[in-house]
Specification:
There is one protein chain. The chain is α+β, with helices and mostly antiparallel strands. It has 2 domains: 159 residues, 2-Layer Sandwich (D-amino Acid Aminotransferase, Chain A, domain 1); 166 residues, D-amino Acid Aminotransferase, subunit A, domain 2 (D-amino Acid Aminotransferase, Chain A, domain 2, Alpha-Beta Barrel). Helix content is 24%, strand content 28%. The protein contains 8 helices and 20 strands. Strands 1, 2, 3, 4, 5, 6, 7, 8, 9 and 20 form a 10-stranded mixed beta sheet that branches. Strands 12-11-10-18-19 form a 5-stranded mixed beta sheet. Strands 15-14-13-16-17 form a 5-stranded mixed beta sheet, sandwiched between helices. It binds 2-OXO-4-methylpentanoic acid. 2-OXO-4-methylpentanoic acid (COI) binds next to loops.
């Protein structure tokens, strides 16, 4: 199969991008990469002008949620080098999500060719600095027009881009959700499927009522151990400093690529990390007694986001307003992107 996309060029962008006030996920690339799977194989992909999709009301993904996505970023260095960060790891995670949802594997060459061609035709979308990025959104869903409940036989993979700055622009407080659950062992908590986000929306509304921007999920069995924020993995900084983060082995949290990058950067900086179950009591008592000095979230969209306070059990547990560990990790992350960290982890830099 030829994985090089056929390209139908879109008209040039008419508006100028104002990078200093670009909203997350509202400005889109002029092109869309599309691949379809039918009769047991992927068809040749194409790049076409961005536009509305025409979907039959019986499209399986709309009813039964066989739909997943990824989020990764591409950057431009001051010397003009353009690259996507950890693209292969995102492709691997996309396929782990696909396997859990009984969807066909996406071949690496198909994904890579679609993405490279799209980033090439969208050269004008690259930001002027490493504070901004091209956010890449692969979206993969069941396309059968049939109301029977079974894995679809046809699928659509889309990739499009949106230029972004910070995901959160102000302070972030987290509402510790102790009534609803996000994931249970054996469920789908570790995959990036649309339904996980749908199931979290109501908690997000509750969080807003308490002045919080994100929820912090607890484990479904005991509601004692933290799992992840609604948009990010969770890290706790204990005096030392030492980092704590929930482990992946229960299969209830997303194996974040940024989480993994932070684990690497922490070891590079000599900051010890414990991947272990972290009790919410340990955290709130730690905040009270000064043992816990920072809490932060990590994710592709948010990168590294300090949390200002936790709303738990009707009380607000406020964290110190300075976050030196999160700041140091952010600086190292930036140096990694700039190619200034040694070792450079060049295998994470996917040059375009
Ligand atoms: C990402 O961080 O890329 C995500 O997919 C999270 C999303 C809620 C923006």
């Amino acid at each position: 199969m030829i994985w090089t996309p056929e390209i139908q060029a879109a008209p040039p962008r008419t508006e100028t991008l104002s990078w200093d006030k670009i909203p997350f996920g509202r400005v889109f690339s002029r092109h869309l990469a599309v691949a379809q799977y039918a009769e047991g194989s992927w068809q040749r992909p194409r790049i076409q002008p961005m536009g509305e999709l025409s979907l039959h009301p019986g499209t399986s993904a709309l009813h039964y949620g066989q739909s997943l996505f990824e989020g990764l970023k591409a950057y431009q260095r001051p010397d003009g080098t353009r690259f996507a960060f950890r693209a292969e790891d995102h492709w691997k995670r996309l396929n782990r999500s696909a396997a859990r949802l009984a969807m066909p594997e996406v071949p690496y060459d198909l994904f890579a060719n679609m993405l490279k061609a799209l980033l090439e035709v969208e050269r004008d979308l690259f930001p002027p600095d490493l504070e901004h990025a091209v956010y890449i959104r692969p979206l993969y869903f069941a396309a059968d027009r049939w109301l029977g409940v079974r894995p679809s036989e046809t699928y659509t993979l889309l990739i499009y881009l949106t230029p972004v700055g910070p995901y959160y622009t102000g302070e972030v407080k987290a509402y510790v959700e102790n009534e609803m659950s996000r994931a249970a062992p054996g469920g789908t908590g570790s995959v990036k499927m649309a339904g996980n986000y749908a199931a979290a929306m109501l908690s997000g509304k509750k969080a807003q009522q308490f002045g919080c921007q994100v929820s912090l999920w607890l484990d479904a069995l005991s509601r004692e151990y933290i799992e992840e924020f609604s948009t990010m993995n969770a890290f706790i900084v204990q005096r030392g400093p030492k980092l704590l983060t929930p482990p992946l082995d229960r299969g209830t949290i997303l194996p974040g690529v940024t989480r993994d990058t932070i684990l690497y950067l922490a070891s590079h900086l000599g900051i010890p990390v414990e991947e272990r179950e972290v009790s919410i009591y340990e955290i709130v008592e730690g905040i009270t007694h000064g043992e816990v000095s920072e809490v932060f979230g990590t994710g592709t969209a948010a990168t590294i986001m300090p949390i200002q306070a936790l709303h738990y059990d009707g009380k607000l547990w406020t964290l110190p307003s300075t976050h030196p560990v999160a700041d140091e990790l952010s600086r190292s992350y930036r140096r990694l992107l700039a190619g200034e960290l040694s070792p450079s982890k060049s295998e994470w830099i996917w040059l375009i």
